[in-house]
Amino acid sequence: MWGIGAIAVLSLAGNGLLWQKLSTIQEHLARQSADAGAQAVEARTMARQAQDLARDTAARQAVSDARLGEATLQRSQLEELMQSLSRSRDENLVVDLESALRLAQQQAQLTGSVEPLLAALKTAGDRIARAANPRLTSLQRAIAHDVDRIKAASVTDTPGLLVKLDDLVRQVDDLPTLNALQPLGGSGGTQPAPPPVPAVWWHRSLDLVYQEARKLLRVSRIDRPEAALLSPEQTFFLRENLKLKLLNARLGLLARQMESARTDLGSANTMLNKYFDPASRKTQTTSSLLSQVQTQMKAVELPQVNETLAALATAAAGR
Length: 319
What we know:
Blueprint: H1 2-111, H2 115-131, H3 137-152, H4 158-171, H5 201-216, H6 225-228, H7 232-254, H8 258-275, H9 281-296, H10 306-316
Helix pairs in contact: 1-2, 1-10, 2-3, 3-10, 4-7, 4-9, 7-8, 8-9
């Protein structure tokens, strides 16, 4: 009995311990379950917050993408507008330069001088340098080549020849003809001093008669009778014809008709040598000036700016 009682007591004690442990485990499990539930609630709250944050972030990202797209579109439109303005400016520059160069060519043809071409090329080079466009680099090289070629070209000095022709026209009226009476002692020279007057009166009378007789008769050699037989009226028309020849040569020079101008100058030179006194200093000066004009009048074409015009055409085509 005592043994059974002891076993029963031990069993009860063991059962109590087991129950106590079981209660402890249940409490621990209950706390863990409560903690798990709280954590689950907290996790759900955090998940909800994360979802809200994700939606907010997505909305903001969408707004940012939209704004970025708008900014990109505006930037592309702005770049396109700038390129269009740049192309338009370059095209206008090319058109202006081409017009200026063609006008300078016409002025050079009219004046017979290369100065208008050089001035137009210099202005074009300065404008291209200010534009600072890499596409116009070849145009700058073409302008530099044309400038060097024009400066090295031999061109007739048309303004200087015109001045000399005007001088020739003015000198015609002062030229002595072959049949003009010249003072004693030679053309263009000084008359020799009369001999000492004798003291005797009849010597003075004889000397006076001698001087008057010398004025009445003169013997000279005539190689061209037609020049010596010119009347005063014919002499007037001779001078006018000589002026017309020189003026025709001047018009031919202005019209760039060098062959016609040289022909008129040759006719004027023939008239000068045929009808005017070659021993006169005025005739010699006029003949020398006429020879200079004939020598300087060369049939040299004005240089062209073809290389620059070709570069302008290439730039206008956008190549």
